[in-house]
Amino acid sequence: EYAKDLSETVLTYGLELLAVGMATEKLQLLSKVGLEQRRFTVNKLQDGEHWNVGVYGRYFFGSANHEIMTGAQLAGGQADFKGYSSRSVEPSVRLRFNLPYDTYITSHAVLRHERYATPATGLETDDRKDNHWRLGAGVGWDITRSLSLGVQYEYIKNYSNSELYQYRQDMVTTTMTLNF
Predict the structure, then answer these.
(1) pTM of the entire structure?
(2) Mean pLDDT throughout 36-52?
(3) Which residues lie closer than 8 Å to 139 by C-beta, 6 or more apart?
């Protein structure tokens, strides 16, 4: 039986702009746009530029201002490898519970419907289509009003019309967020 190490490190860097408006004292409306560059250590054919545009509503509740956010984003990407582009729609729901000492816990559920411009392999005739589930939980610390650190775990399951892209993944992500 053959087993392959599918370890991959992805360096992602870019810019995300967020506009926030208060609809009521407890309800915010958010719009965001982002552009990023991705560089893969193993699958270099996926290196390239990616964009996203999203609209969300965030509701604050409880004395600690816990929050629930729901909305959707449209996204796309063009890999450096010619013809490997995709477009997606991604509805999501996120929860954040604020704890003592400027710490918090989070959870989220995301479903991405993604369509690629080409088949997954030269042996397939239909363009690749994926349904990508992400369920996660995390912890974080607001060091200052402008700086926070976090770590989260995500369970990922991808269903695809190409057997090559049906997979399950466990991912741990660390973040440093600077707000200004």
Answers:
(1) 0.80
(2) 86
(3) 103, 104, 105, 106, 150, 151, 152
